[in-house]
# Entry
Amino acid sequence: MPFMLISTQIRLENGPTNVGDEFSDPDVMNYLGARKTTVLGNNFSEYHVDDPPRLVLDKLEKIGFRLLSMTGVGQTLVWCLHKETE
# Structure
C-alpha cells in the first residue's frame, strides 16, 4: 500500500493519532504499535496510536514513507504520505 493518511484533531496534537483504516497494511500498523478500534455506531474500524503525529511521521520516514502534503479540514489535521513500491 503505497499511500497513507494520518490525522489528529486540533488541540490533540499530543495524540492520539489516527494512522489507518481496516484495510491498512498490518505490518505497518504493527510497526507503529497501532490498535484497531471500532466506534459504536460505525460500520468500519480505524487504527490509532497514542503518539503525537510528529513521532508517527518520524517512524514512517524510517521505513521509507515521504510526506506529500498536509492540510487542515475543519478541526482535523491530515498528512498524506507515499512510499515508493519496490
About this structure: Helices lie at 26-32, 53-62.
